[in-house]
Amino acid sequence: MQQFYKKLMQDYNTELSYSGINGERLASRLYELSRIGRTESGGVTRPGYSSLEKQAKELVMKWMEEAGLTVSTDGAGNVFGKLDGRNAGPSIVSGSHVDSVPNGGHFDGPLGVLGALEVAEAWKEQGYVPEKPYEVAIFSDEEGSRFKTGLTGSRAFMGKIDAEELNILRDAEGNTFEEVITSYGSSVEQYLEARNHNRQIETFIELHIEQGKILEQEDQPVGIVSGIAGPAWIEIAFTGEAGHAGNTPMPGRRDPLIAAGIFIKELEDLPREVSGTAVATVGKLDVHPNGVNVIAQQVEMIVDCRDIQEEPRDRLVELITEKAKTIASERSIEVNVKVNTRITPLPIEKELQDKLASALHKFEIEPVYIPSGAGHDAMNLGSKYPAAMLFVRSKDGISHNPKEWTSLNDCVSALHVLKAFIEDAMDESV
């Protein structure tokens, strides 16, 4: 994994380290985080509410304290490092997450956390005291890979999740949410109390890798998010009749895997029926009992569907549900459909987009406006507070993969834009 640090540094333009922003420090910290939960293929696995996610948070908390921030956590495991300003009042907040998908990359989440922290580090070196309070945030379990539901920490923070939903959550090992959160060092009661925070937030700004190819195509290091698509995760279980693969005649079989295959094929055509920006994906499929010579008894899958507008996204959920029930009926099998997650899309206010464009122009970067198909913590914060996002160029658009890569030059260029945006926000209406 030392190669990860060397690769970051090998093409780095050290002239980008100025105004307190230090590219070498950022590279070192990205490397240190990459070692927590690393996989044999060079990726990282840090599930939400795991000991590995907690270890990553504790490392960043140590860096926060060294930078002079006052660190606190809530019952959902969210972390906040606060720097007091010259004046009291609502904070400018920036941050992201440090959990990952299984065998994911090293930039998705950590770059936003370490980038927000680097702004505070830069101010410390410059002797700059912000006019308003500033906070660096780490939100828990953003990816949602453990419980088949995402953005868990920021949803708790914003009061967007309740005990009823938590009661039905199970991880792959069958552990309940209550068991997992207790092992983590909290409780369901404390988790739900995260919504009763006393924080005042003026603006939330999240820095994140693009996870797409638009900035690469436009040859720009940093772009502006115009809106965030709201994901809906639909759990579908087709249940048929298990049997011997050799002794059961083809006519009359009630094979749920056939139904699942037909469903997945026809799913491809559904998004275009609602809009040009809607998408739907089956990325997780479990076959039971999964024997080579056994007709399956049950097939479970998760459908991820998204759009940047809520109405067509919800219509897509209806179409997916209808399609699953129709296929099950035609194949004489049972089906159970449950919507695990439904997040409201977030359009970014034009005023905030204009302010980000102004920050980009300071560094002679041409603004590129990009709708985010991926969900982010910013969309939960944005339901109550003004929220904005910056994207950083992703090599080949690859993400959720060990090959995920963003050059250190692009990372640091983005940090200068982030810092300029936050400093401009500090000077407004003091």
Automatic annotation (TrEMBL):
Positions annotated to bind Zn(2+) 1: H97, D108, H208
Lineage: Bacteria, Bacillati, Bacillota, Bacilli, Bacillales
Pfam families membership: M20_dimer (PF07687), Peptidase_M20 (PF01546)
Cofactor binding: number and manner: Binds 2 Zn(2+) ions per subunit.
Residue ranges of every copy of the Peptidase M20 dimerisation domain listed in the record: 230-330
Protein name, as recorded: Zn-dependent hydrolase
Residue numbers binding Zn(2+) 2: D108, E143, H400
Family under the similarity heading: Belongs to the peptidase M20 family.
Assigned keywords, A-Z: Hydrolase, Metal-binding, Zinc
Keyword Plastid: no
Cofactor(s) demanded: Zn(2+)
Source organism of the structure: Jeotgalibacillus proteolyticus
